[in-house]
Write a structure and sequence with these properties.
It contains 3 helices and 2 strands, in the order H-H-E-E-H. By secondary structure, it is α+β, with helices and mostly antiparallel strands.
Length: 93
Amino acid sequence: MICNLKELNKFVLYIKFKMETVSSASALIQCQAFMCTIDLKDAYYHGPIYPNSQKFLRFAVLSPEGEEAHFQYKAFPSEYPLHRELFRRSWSR
């Protein structure tokens, strides 16, 4: 299912995003971690949204039968403009 967040994005204050470097990522690796792979390609989809904030990212879908179903995100949606910055902040803690 694809959810277009274009209308929501009009109300989001943009924060400049700075991607972490490989050297800052390697500083987070524990000592004696002799085998490690860091793949951030899809990592944004795993950034959890606090349960109290999930209600702000709800949407409704109308089925072919005319029934309305409601959903809410538990992780950052890819179209949300701040998901990269929020993920970076949670990663650097």
